[in-house]
Each structure stands twice: as C-alpha cells, then as structure tokens.
Amino acid sequence: MGLSLKWDLFSSGANTYKIKQAQQDSKINNVQTDYVASQLQLQLVTSEHAFNAAVFNYQFNLSNFGAAQKYYQDIIRLYKSGQALFIELLDAQNQLIQAELQSNISLYETHIKAAEFERASATLNIQSY
Predict the structure, then answer these.
(1) Half-sphere exposure of residue 57: CA atoms within 13 angstroms, side-chain side
(2) Is 109 in contact with 57 (CB distance < 8 Å)?
C-alpha cells in the first residue's frame, strides 16, 4: 500500500499569473464585445439616415416628375394651337422622360436602402409556409 502526495510549493506565482491572465482576457473580450455592439449601432444609424435621405430624394424626384408632366402638357397645348415650336415640344418631352427615369432610379435606390436598413436592424420577418 502506498500514499502519494503532491505539494506545489513554488507554483503559487504561476497560479496567480494564470488568474491575472484570465481576468485580462475577460476584460479584452468585454471591450471587443462593446466595440462590436457600437459598430452595429453605428451601422444601424447610418443605414437609417441613408434610407431617410433616399426617401427624401425619391419624393423630390416625384415632384420634379409632376412638374415635368405639367410643363409637357402645357407645351403640347401650345404646340397644337401653333404658339410653340416643335423643338420646344421635343425639349419638354426630353425633360419628362429624364424626370421619369430619375424618379424610377430613386425609387430603386429607396428599395436598396430599405433592404440595407432592414438587414442592419435585423427586422426581416421570415414566414414559413
């Protein structure tokens, strides 16, 4: 029959070092977690502002499109009565087409920014069928 004992007289410094290292690792992890959380919050705020700017831009382009439509209708009326030149009619038509294209482009930009905001805020509702 035998008895074996192990007594580490000189390992108390190593244990203290390991405890301090674990505490420092914990602090580093907390700092990294806070950093990632702040980066996610910044991305959310940035994407929200970008979405709001895209909506404003779309509304502005829609008002321009409405003004271009009215101008085009006025020029058509003047052209039919002989008071406007054909080149003026073509210019009004060109302005109308450009305004429509800009409003469509800004609509798609708004959809893109909405998707980015939805992804940043993680509010996508996934429905199962």
Answers:
(1) 17
(2) yes
One digit per residue, the tens of pLDDT, for the chain of length 129 reads 777 766 666 666 677 888 899 999 999 999 999 999 999 999 999 999 999 999 999 999 999 999 999 999 999 999 999 999 999 999 999 999 999 999 999 999 999 999 999 999 887 666 665
DSSP states of 27-48 as a string?
HHHHHHHHHHHHHHHHHHHHHH
Three-state helix/strand/coil letters over 47-63: HHHHHHHHHHHHHHHHH
Whether 120 contacts 44, CB under 8 Å: yes
Q: Please state, in angstroms and rounded to a whole number, the distance separating the CA atoms of residues 102 and 97.
A: 9
Distance between CA atoms of 41 and 81, rounded to whole angstroms?
A: 60
Structure-token pair, residue 24? 């420092």
pTM of the complete model: 0.74
| CA neighbor of 59 nearest in space, from 119, 93, 99, 103 | 103
Residues belonging to the chain: 129
